[in-house]
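User: I'm curious whether this sequence folds into something compact or stays loose and floppy. Could you predict its structure so I can see for myself?
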Amino acid sequence: MNLIHPFRIQRWFYTKNLILISKAVQLLIFLLYNSKITGDTEIGKGTYFVCKGICTVLVPGTIIGENCVIGLRFSTVRKFPFSKVPLIGNNVWFGPNVVIAGPVIIEDNVVVGANSFVNKSIPKGAIVAGNPAKIIGWRKDLDYDLNDNPKFKKGIAEFL
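Assistant: Here's the prediction. I'll summarize afterward.
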């Protein structure tokens, strides 16, 4: 079972103001997946975690859009003294070991390469990688559509 399923249960309890039950589900998520996701985190429809969501840490209040692919050991963190948290758009792909730090905005259709540290906002359609992450290309320049892969769609169906 993917981490997104118990998170949806946790989020439902949180939205119904059943905080104690939401915290119990959060503890269960920690024990099963070694991940920390709080009930005030928002994750859009169609988003899923690779490798069942093992070792995912999301700072409270993180907003993730729809149809995102989140890699293994994905983390969002605050960058002090800022109080705002990352805002992630729709159709964003994250490789493994990605850290998003600070009040950054990652717009729609972005690809973030493995082992990247993102500390600045990323424009729509960019491909970024590195530490700190820098733009290395654009999705519009690719010879293929990442979302139009029959093998990928079959794989997503197994997770949803």
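Summary: The first helix runs from residue 4 to 15. The domain at 39-159 is CATH 2.160.10.10 (UDP N-Acetylglucosamine Acyltransferase; domain 1).
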